[in-house]
Design a protein that fits this description.
The chain has about 170 residues and is an alpha/beta fold. The protein has helices at about 50-65, 80-95, 110-120, 135-170, and strands at about 10-20, 25-35, 35-50, 70-75, 95-100, 105, 125-130.
Length: about 170
């Protein structure tokens, strides 16, 4: 084991989210690396958005860590990277609300932003953006895992059930 300078384990995480249609069936994936070890995780939903899957990937990756760590975190989502680094402190200060056209509105995907806030609390996370589809092997692997998961979801549920799920998703205003 290679502890960090302050006796915390150092972990590298890559994440990605994907969606066929937006909204549509979607999936998230992450790769966690610690020394010679690696773990790949993925999951998905019948009806969701790309942003929700990007956020879910980050939540799942951080929650997979069993103890406090120093995390070098890579995402190809500016939404996640800027959201956690720049926007989230203001949202929290304003009761998870954002200003839009001089009115206070709820933060979109508030449930996942709150989950991400909780998931990162016990870690020291350095949030990094990496350009998607630009040849980074771990980012490409996450993209592959997420798209394979979407394919699995499409085969498992079929067009009619996915269409029904999408209708419910849209009616819920997600």
């Amino acid at each position: 084991m290679e502890p960090g300078s302050d006796n915390l384990t150092r972990v590298v995480i890559y994440t990605d989210g994907a969606c066929r249609g937006n909204p549509g069936p979607g999936a998230w994936a992450c790769v966690l690396k610690y020394g010679p070890y690696r773990k790949e995780l993925c999951g998905g939903e019948k009806a969701t958005t790309n942003n929700r899957m990007e956020l879910q990937a980050a939540v799942e990756a951080l929650n997979a860590l069993k103890k406090s760590c120093i995390v070098e975190f890579y995402t190809d989502s500016r939404y996640v990277q800027e959201g956690v680094s720049d926007w989230m402190p203001k949202w929290k200060e304003n009761g998870w609300r954002r200003r839009e056209n001089r009115k206070w509105k709820p933060v979109k995907n508030e449930d996942l932003w709150r989950a991400l806030d909780t998931a990162q609390e016990r870690h020291q996370v350095e949030w990094n953006w990496v350009r998607g589809h630009a040849g980074d092997p771990e980012n490409e692997r996450c993209d592959q895992l997420a798209n394979e998961e979407i394919g699995r979801i499409e085969r498992m549920y079929g067009k009619d059930e996915l269409k029904k799920a999408l209708g419910s998703f849209r009616r819920a205003g997600s």
